Amino acid sequence: MIDHQFLLQLQLLNSETPPMEDGTSSSSSSSSSPTLPTSKYIPKRPFPPLKVPSNGVASDLKKALFSPTSLIIRTPTFRPNYRSLYFACLFTTVFLFCTVLFLFANPHLHHSSSQWFKNMLARRPQLPAYLPDFIFYDAGGGGEGGGGGKYKISAAKSNETELEGNRNGKGSELGKIGGNDRGRLKDKAWLEIMSRCDIYDGKWVKNDLAPLYERGSCSFMDESFNCHRNGRPEYAFERYRWQPHHCNTPRLKGRKMLRLLRGKRMVYVGDSMNRNMWESLVCLLRNSVKDKSRVFEASGRTDFKKEGAYSFLFLDYNCSIEYIRSAFLVQEWETTLANGSKKETLRLDLPESSYDTIKDADVLVFNTGNWWTHEKTSEGKGYYQEGDNVHEKLEVEEAFAKAMATWARWIEANVDLNKTHVFFRGYSFPHFSKGEWNTGGRCDDKEPIEDEKELLSAHEMKPSIPLMLDRAMEGLKIPVYYQNVSLMTNYRKDAHPSLFRKPNMTEDEKNYFATHQDCSHWCLPGVPDTWNELLFAQLLMIYKQRRLQQHQEQQAHL
Length: 558
Fold this sequence. Notes:
This protein is α/β, with parallel strands linked by helices and 558 residues long. Among the domains are: 1-19 and 35-75, no CATH class; 200-428 and 454-538, no CATH class. 32% of the residues lie in helices and 13% in strands. The chain is built from 14 helices and 15 strands. It has helices at 4-15, 57-66, 82-104, 113-122, 155-162, 181-195, 254-260, 272-287, 375-379, 396-414, 465-474, 486-491, 507-515, 527-557; strands at 137-138, 150-151, 202-206, 240-244, 265-270, 295-297, 309-314, 319-325, 330-336, 342-351, 363-366, 384-386, 389-390, 421-425, 481-483. The strands form 4 sheets. A 7-stranded mixed beta sheet has the order 6-7-8-5-11-14-15, with helices on one face. The protein has a 4-stranded mixed beta sheet with strand order 9-10-12-13. A two-stranded antiparallel sheet has the order 1-2. 29% of the residues are buried.
């Protein structure tokens, strides 16, 4: 409530004639009229009074508070230009959005931003593939949830939903959900970008994300790969990720890959480097399963170094991840000499005897290479055999080409390449310095190689396994996905087990391993996780391509 007596007093005060600037009253004023202090309290140029209706109390209050003689000094009020403010906010919002998109949606542009921007302008229809998955707004009324105007998962985000497809074993995973046109458009744009990108051409960059599984969390890991358990004191080698120069690859999520592999069989075939990669995937996928008791090796074995085949079953997804040891991809043999003695040879004309058990697998991952550098194979004296003929001398390059041709013929004759995806992982560089694996070679480095000039030269290797593999892959007439990991492994001299090969080592063991370091294999978590992550990216590309192809075939029949 307004105090009317107070207002009346203020009104009487305002009825007096204001004094002149010199302190005297006007001629019409009474000599006894009260005078107020001069400019000490009253501004010389008072602000104009507010325009309010002259209606009773409001008018009286206005006169009392904003009269030039009022003791209450009016504070100037900022009156913004709302139209200018609106455009300023809009511009700031758009600018910040574009900046965030430009810097974070495409990490590879940090080292090639100008070229990336040119590529983006040249492929404007593919712009959705550069954008985050959550920004697309579906104004229509489609979708399982019903109702229009809802945000919908699209493209890469939708894969997790789409791959759920055949959870109950009913219907086909491909194309069962993913009927969204915008999702197909984004898939197509992403596939076009990835088809022009060599995901094995890139560099290692520091990464703040945790490894794909926690160190020391996998009980199935080979003892010599478990650097955490073996006492390695630093883990900076885990904080790197592989960044292709011209595209981005998705981070491997265990559940998503298990959904890709639901009801399927995946087999690694090769030497201990492929066992390194196989154990990496087993640990990674097991880490994403809630009930880990439903993941186990079929025969109950825990030592995977011996000859034979091993299979981990993931019961919740009805899939298996297997490994078969085959160091050369052809048969290691024993031949009988004229004097009745036995001699070890390598049958370049016979594929591995266990291949018949894997020809119906859905994904095959082969490798060979490291064993071809050993003394018997590199010298080639009386070791290589074709038919009954044991070559007195055969160059390792020629023997390797013959073995790869035998492997390729078996694939072509026995594997349904419409059903089975065949991968071949390339050569993984070792990093022995000051000797070889059996002559005191070491790899004590804690940082990867940064200067390309320090990389090991494939041309200087004797024999040059990376170049031999490249030639073999180029000569194939069958569709094989070549995982050329030579460059990425060449940089990582910091990520080998080194002398941390066994837990709780005695002093004698420490002294022995100090001169017998493992500079060939890799610590886990570590570099093989990246191999599997790129394998996942390629499998995802195959899945998207088949889904789009199936949709096109369905549209053609309409």
